[in-house]
Design goal:
The complex is a heterodimer of chains A (321) and B (288). Chain A has 321 residues and is α/β, with parallel strands linked by helices. Chain A has two domains: 221 residues, P-loop containing nucleotide triphosphate hydrolases (Rossmann fold, 3-Layer(aba) Sandwich); 73 residues, Alpha-Beta Plaits (2-Layer Sandwich). Helix content of chain A is 34%, strand content 26%. Chain A contains eleven helices and 13 strands. Chain B has one domain. In chain B, α1 crosses α5 and α2 crosses α5. Chain B is elongated. At the A-B interface, α2, α3, α4 and α6 of A face α1 and α4 of B.
């Protein structure tokens, strides 16, 4: 499959405020891309431009090979949108909602009913009967919302913060639904504030901040880019934690950009992974008379990468985008 | 991108819609615009079926107003120039019911925008005009039913229109005024962000309706206020409707009252054009 979404130099202004300041984005067909970023980074605006809801002020945007500005109607035939809140009719039941949306996608009466049943099956809402959507749980409403975005089996599905406000079971349901679609070949672009969500679902992550893409890559690449692995130490005496951190860093050959100091007895040190590094650190601490209760060597989490990249961390590290 | 016809069991392989022809002629577009508008309007009909209670309250509230004004206040009312207050009142309450439609339209539009349903429609390949056209169809249909129920209640309390032909024209004028309030409601609904502002409109409807001849003749009001009330679009429609039904009009009144039938057409048409233009602008502004 080719490129499902191609964005070059996308600019969007509201008055003097520049919301999108030259966004470049590429999503391969059949893949899942997560747009990650703090509130106000421009995630939703990007999705609104890509789904023809908002006209761009500059740049070139193609979705499923069609120019968004020139042929919005053609784009709409190829996409599904699941917005930030479940955009379903509260009074109608699940099936009635889907039949309505199917009719508005110009399916015939019978085809609309058949498609509604298929979609209910797909998102696991087959047995809600005539119950109005307002009586659904958050996760059920979300799944109905996703089903409504799938009427035409879209080539690209946009999900804007699909699990915000859901309980863990609801999030799991939505993830399952999304993963099922991906297996079926649908390209998915989702925005999220949850890093574990990006890690779970996405092939690629794109970090937006201040209307620009500040980092992109696979979740693994992003975490590697901000300094590989972390050594977590739990020392016996909290008074000697800082000393232990200094010592461990020196011995381990800390990679650029020290992680924030740990709290209490827990010390986190960035390390360059090499054979014997853990033993060296523990021996050095032992020689200095600092008792170590626990040691853990792990890769940096996407959380750590994200905080570093968006500068929400104490210090900011530039990561080449 | 190659068409993924090889769907796995998780995505049931359908649907013919994907194979729709890409290009449509203008006749197809028009046909779909009409079909889409009816599909959107059918959603309201489904609401009425699902929530008959809410529908009933909406239909019976103007009937309650009629009964209250007639039996609680009506005893102290005299129509200047003669005629029964009941016959003077029924066209007035019909006018009031039309004005009530404003908040119904506004609530529906604000709710859909707020819930993201409007954006869902806008991201779909349906005719963009259908969102508003469907609203118009549904609201006009509901108003027609509401006016019929209210007129029936009028008949039950003893009111009778003189002739059938002019009575039909009278209902036409009432629906024409409803159209003006419909566009005003759509514009306001797209304008305000907060559903709470509907409450403000709900309150303002009352002084607007009272500042007319719907319940008392303008000749009983202080001079300048009477002039304002007379020029109220609602007053023009109510006077014209009274004449068409053969009901007492109430003595007095200046140019606006003498030319009420003309104004009952001109006012709604002008208001519709103005607010439809504003609403379409606002609609296009959603993409900005």
């Amino acid at each position: 499959m080719g490129t499902a979404v191609q964005v070059r130099g996308l600019v969007k202004r509201y008055g003097a405020q520049v919301v999108l300041d030259g966004v470049d984005l590429e999503v391969a067909g059949g893949s899942v891309c997560a747009l990650l970023g703090p509130n106000g980074a421009g995630k939703t605006t990007t999705v609104r431009v890509l789904t023809t809801l908002v006209r761009p002020d500059g740049g070139r945007v193609e979705v499923a090979g069609v120019d968004v500005a020139a042929h919005p109607r053609e784009v709409r035939r190829r996409i599904g949108l699941v917005g930030q809140q479940p955009a379903v009719d509260d009074v109608l039941g699940a099936r009635e909602n889907l039949v309505l949306f199917a009719r508005l996608h110009h399916l015939g009466r019978r085809a609309a009913r058949r498609r509604a049943d298929e979609l209910l099956e797909l998102v696991g809402l087959g047995d809600t009967g005539g119950k109005p959507a307002r009586q659904f749980s958050g996760g059920m409403r979300r799944r109905l919302d996703i089903a409504a975005g799938l009427v035409l089996a879209p080539q690209v599905l946009f999900l804007d913060e699909p699990t915000t406000g859901l309980d863990p079971a609801g999030r799991r349901d939505v993830w399952d639904a999304v993963l099922g679609l991906v297996r079926g070949g649908t390209t998915v672009l989702l925005t999220t504030q949850y890093l574990d969500e990006a890690e779970q679902l996405a092939d690629d992550v794109c970090v937006l901040d201040g209307g620009r893409v500040v980092a992109r890559g696979t979740p693994r690449e992003l975490t590697a880019a901000v300094g590989g692995d972390r050594l977590e130490l739990v020392v016996d005496d909290p008074a000697r934690a800082a000393e232990a951190a200094d010592l461990a860093e020196r011995v381990a050959g800390a990679s650029p950009g020290a992680p924030p100091p740990g709290r209490g007895t827990r010390v986190t040190v960035a390390v360059a992974r090499r054979p014997g590094v853990v033993g060296d650190v523990v021996r050095a601490l032992d020689d200095a008379g600092i008792a170590v209760d626990d040691v853990l060597l792990r890769p940096a989490t996407l959380d750590e990468a994200y905080l570093r990249i968006t500068g929400r961390d104490e210090q900011r590290t530039e990561v080449p985008a | 991108m190659t068409a993924p016809t090889t769907a796995t069991p998780t995505t049931p392989a359908t649907t013919a819609a994907r194979d729709l022809p890409a290009a449509e002629g203008w006749t197809d577009r028009l046909r779909w615009a009409v079909a889409d508008a009816f599909a959107v309007a059918a959603r309201d009909v489904a609401h009425w079926r699902r929530q008959p209670g809410a529908l009933l309250v909406g239909l019976l509230f103007p009937v309650l107003m009629l009964v209250m004004f007639l039996y609680l206040l009506g005893g102290g009312m005299a129509v200047p120039g003669g005629g029964s207050y009941r016959d003077f009142l029924v066209p007035g309450v019909l006018g009031l019911a039309v004005v009530f439609g404003l908040e119904a339209t506004m609530t529906a539009v604000v709710t859909d925008v707020g819930r993201g349903i409007t954006d869902r429609f806008r991201s779909m390949p349906m005719a963009p005009s259908a969102v508003v056209a469907g609203r118009c169809l549904a609201d006009l249909a509901l108003s027609a039913v509401g006016l019929a129920v209210l007129a029936l209640a009028g008949v039950l309390v003893g009111w009778r229109p003189d002739e059938a032909g002019p009575a039909v024209v009278a209902f036409g004028l009432l629906l024409l005024l409803r159209l003006a309030f419909l566009w005003l409601g759509i514009w306001l609904g797209l304008l305000v962000k907060d559903p709470a502002s509907v409450a403000a409109v709900q309150i303002l409807v009352w002084p607007f309706a009272f500042l007319s001849n719907a319940f008392v003749a303008t000749s009983t009001m202080p001079g300048w206020l009477a002039t304002v009330a007379e020029w109220n679009p609602l007053a023009a429609t109510v006077t014209a409707v009274r004449e068409l039904f053969g009901d007492p009009v109430g003595a007095g009144g200046g140019w606006a009252t003498e030319h009420a039938t003309l104004l009952a057409v001109v006012w709604p048409v002008v208001l519709s054009v103005v607010f439809a233009t504003l609403a379409v602008r606002r609609w296009q502004g959603l993409s900005r």
